[in-house]
Amino acid sequence: MTPFVNVNGTDYRWPTRPVVVVCIDGGDPRYLEQLLQEDAIPNMRAFIEQGFGSVADGSMPSFTCPNNMSIITGTPTSRHGISGNYYLDTKTWQPVVMTGPELLRGDTILARFAQEGAKVVSITAKDKLRRQLGKGLDVSQGHVSFSSEFADRCTLVENGIENVLAYVGMPQPDMYSMELSLFVLEAGIKLLKDHRPDLMYLSLTDFVQHKWSPTELDARRFYERLDDAFGRLAQEDVVLALTADHGMSDKSNAAGEPNVIWLQDRLDERFGRDEMTVVCPITDAFVAHHGALGGFVRVWSKGRVDADSIMAFIQGMDGIELALNKTTACRMFDMPEDREADVVVISREDVCIGASAASHHLDGLKGHRLRTHGGISEAKVPVILNRPLNARYRQKVTWKPLKSHDIFELALNGTD
Ligand SMILES: [Zn+2]
To answer: I need a surface site. Which of 191, 196, 295, 348 has the fewest CB within 10 A?
Structure first.
């Protein structure tokens, strides 16, 4: 047994009991605030009181893929390179999907431990994350990596597990349901009981948080079920660590209509058509609940208009929090320069940004207020452990700002 495993420059201690890290997708601290007050989440309350609970900085942009990759590699976006779902290839001027494992730089903590002989399990709700989370993981060696989205299609060759629906005892969950997340947790509990893997990563989906605010009944129902599952996980003598990839903000006006800046339309109007391209890196198959609108977009210029002119124009718009050039944005938010645009635009908490009005479909909202993420206002996330920190890490968290990408370090090195 190896005492330490080095992953991307950090030494992680070999676990003495299973370590389970859960990413509550869209798990804004405001849900905890509300539901702790309502006394609806007794297990999480006990973890916070007897273990550890705080708010940490997530990675920017506050989207799902970048933050899952930060958590699983223990590094900021500048190191692992996944800064959104898309970047623009300026040679072809085509957006490139960033969900392929070949674009992820460095090793994952799971794969490195697996190489050293640990038993590892990775389960995600959305299949788009699965291949990157499973990068370098050889499932023929007893490791497991699958998504609840495609639970009914798992094979031993691809996922290291088969007949998952029968094994978990739940039907195939709907893509737009809270069961898609709950399935991940039930599968994790079952695998933990049967195989006691050394490391387990469980990544949920933010369907509920996109749809319901912390005070709505369905959000409470979801959190009650999460809390129940967390309680059963903690009973298995594990280190349980909970965090989120990003928060979630209400971005609608008093009449319930979304506050949107259609940035491509505004730039076309001001500088002429096709001078620059706005890419919304939140875009994914889940457009139904947010219409691909987020709080962070990228602007690439074809070259005739410089970044300063674009920034000056955008900074004057109501609802914009920041418009930054590439260098400043990457330094400020620790992002990779080679995948960054000429101008980075971040909206205020109550506002979101789209490309052109004609390219987004908002009918998926079906009367719900628009709730989404991507900006600074959604970059704060909870960090909760079911066990107390040891003396060294109790000190460390008082002088070093807590980052959500340090959650594996906290769970492995920070608990005894
Ligand atoms: Zn997310």
So the answer is: 196
